[in-house]
Amino acid sequence: MLSSVCRAAAGLRGPMVVLARSAATDAGEGPRRTCLHDFHVRRGGRMVDFAGFLLPVQYSEGMSASHRHVRQHSGLFDVSHMLQTEVRGRDRLSFLESLCVADLQALPDNGAALSVLTTHSGGVVDDLVITKTPLGYVHLVSNAARRNEVCKLLAEAREKWVAKGKDVVVRHYTPEDWALLALQGPTAATALQPLVDIDLTQLRFMTSSLAAVDGTERCRITRCGYTGEDGFEICVPAGIAESVSEQLLACKNGSVQLAGLGVRDSLRIEAGLCLYGAELSEEISPIEAGLTWLVAKRRREAADFPGASSILQQIRQGPARRRVGLRSQGAPARAGAHIVDLKGVPLGHVTSGCPSPSLGGNVAMGFVQAQAAKAGTRLHLMVRNKPVDAEVAKMPFVTTNYYTPDKKNK
Questions:
Q1: How far is the C-alpha of 78 from the C-alpha of 405, rounded, in Å?
Q2: Phi-psi region for residue 359, left (φ > 0), alpha (ψ -120 to 50) or beta?
Q3: Per-residue pLDDT reduced to its tens digit, 59-99
Q4: What is the pTM assigned to this prediction?
Q5: Angle between helices 261-270 and 63-72 (to 10 degrees)
Q6: Across the beta sheet with 32-33, what order do the strands follow?
Q7: Rounded to whole angstroms, how far apart are CA atoms 157 and 160?
Q8: Torsion angle defined by CA atoms of residues 315, 320, 322 and 328, in that order, rounded to the nearest 10 degrees
Q9: Residues near 371 by Cβ (< 8 Å), separated by ≥ 6?
Q10: d(Cα 375, Cα 323) in Å, to the nearest integer?
Q11: Mean pLDDT within 306-330
């Protein structure tokens, strides 16, 4: 679980990265390694423990320069630590709908959806991307820091369903055997296209396909990401992960660089995207987090998901607190900083924050009382016990560049 926030890049230039320690690491077990660990070390990655895995926090060019490179060209992230799961069986869709707020019945084949697994009190167990395939299974990608909680939830729920005669099978991928690469940035498609046997112009944002990658069949490519840019998450066997990475970095047209956790964090903050343990938790509802749109219309009408009573009440009446974007100058506010009004009255707290390499100044997210959530509201962020002028701002802070050609042509 996300139980601590540390300055992974202490003494280094660039934004802060929020690091998560897993239950296994907290218990004294050593961190695991993805199949690309040695590749990162050879490439000069500074390795840190993130959610129980050794992963690169940054490379030699520095985080601010790497951040800008992703916005202007493309960056390659190793996200193999994330939990990948297949759910099979004739009752797979109903099973998953009993745990989340998505309308999977209406999701088209090869469509992907962001959703949340909810608690019975209306909080969030985890956020995840759910891909509905035409091949008899649903593919899930969820957070490594919540691996234990999600595995337990799925196992216990499946046991109950099977006891009722339902057909559900759950299988988790092992990160030592499978790599998940996130290629993000405006040149991502140009860099990836020579390595795959599908036409990437036909793969729109939040759609997925099996493909041959570097000649290896049945790899999965999903057009999505965590940066606000166009990009792909590419699931390949461990045996070809390094070759695929090397070829992407050597691409003459894409200008791809390796990118680490620090850049991933600053990019997602600029894009206004939630991080579990910061903007989402078992104590924060999707409505408070500004994710009302995740709760599908049919699911609202049926009110048949965990925490429906509390969540639907918040949709009707509005939550007491809301996630907001914040802009400021001077010293950046980090997670935990208090938010107060201009008279010093407490309003809430910052959950994520960093200097913005794309915009200049600082960007942050946090929760404030609902009456203070309107864009343009002036307030103070308490940084080292001193008030810093700030303003509530609309998110995303930077314009997103998702690949949606149908909308652009209208």
A1: 27
A2: alpha
A3: 988 899 999 999 999 999 999 999 999 999 999 999 999 99
A4: 0.92
A5: 60
A6: 32-33, 53-58, 46-50
A7: 5
A8: 160
A9: none
A10: 12
A11: 98
